[in-house]
Specification:
Layout lengths: L11 E7 L3 H12 L6 E7 L5 H12 L3 E5 L5 H10 L5 E4 L4 E2 L4 H11 L3 E8 L21 E2 L16 E4 H7 L17 H10 L5 E12 L8
Parallel strand pairs: 1-2, 1-4, 2-3, 6-9
Antiparallel strand pairs: 4-8, 5-9, 6-8, 7-9
Helix pairs in contact: 1-2
Length: 229
């Protein structure tokens, strides 16, 4: 079992992958930068074919040394995530989507949860639709967690349809089981989804660490036009 002191203060990297969503990713990054936990960095991996994301983030980069921006011509969400992981020395990696808004205590809550559960190698938090969202008009992802609980290494019934919009992984977990499967996720060759479920199953298939669902790790996605958006 992994153990740590109560004052354990890991470096956290929040990772966002984006492609041609300048307004959405700027709002997402603004919410990430509102988190005051330290040591902490925000990494944006841009897969756009134009400079629209770089232009949208330029004002934030000027004002925030914690914001790192990188561009890659290789498309694929998990490919971009793996690039960011390999390029950071963080102890904990927090993931959200480019159309999500996280609260200002999101990172602190991730760290506090890991302190309380040192054997939790990955965490998933709630994903709530925007206030006043009308499901009859537009799609928005949602993950409701009524209480903090351990995750089991099972696929069926699918584990609450896990979303990567509020997810955190310890470096030790990546070192033990490898990075995200680049054949899965948006832009993947096998399926444009299920990268979170695949990772959860690999991480929890042994007793080395356990996944945890935590109702307090909240993010709110902007309204999406489709499930693939």
């Amino acid at each position: 079992m992994l153990r740590m002191a109560a004052d354990f203060s890991p470096k956290v990297a929040a990772i966002v992958c984006t492609i041609t969503r300048p307004a959405e990713v700027a709002e997402c990054v603004h919410s990430l930068l509102a988190n005051t936990y330290a040591p902490y960095e925000v990494i944006v991996v841009d897969q756009s074919s134009t400079a629209v994301i770089a232009a949208a983030l330029a004002p934030l980069q000027r004002d925030h040394a914690r914001l790192r921006y990188g561009h890659t011509p290789v498309v694929g969400k998990t490919r971009a995530q793996n690039l960011a992981i390999n390029g950071s020395d963080a102890d904990v990696f927090a993931f959200t989507d480019d159309d999500c808004i996280v609260p200002p205590n999101w990172v602190e809550r991730i760290v506090e949860t890991i302190r309380r559960h040192p054997d939790a190698g990955l965490l998933f938090g709630e994903v709530h639709p925007p206030t006043g969202h009308d499901w009859s008009v537009e799609f928005s992802p949602s993950l409701v967690i009524t209480q903090e609980r351990r995750m089991q290494p099972i696929f069926l019934p699918r584990v609450n349809y896990l979303f990567g919009g509020s997810m955190a992984v310890r470096r030790e977990t990546f070192a033990r089981i490898g990075l995200f499967d680049e054949n899965l996720g948006l832009g993947g060759s096998l399926a444009p989804a299920n990268e979170e479920v695949d990772f959860h199953l690999r991480a929890t298939s042994t007793s080395a660490d356990r996944g945890l669902l935590d109702a307090r790790l909240l993010c709110r996605p902007r309204t999406r036009q489709s499930a693939a958006g």
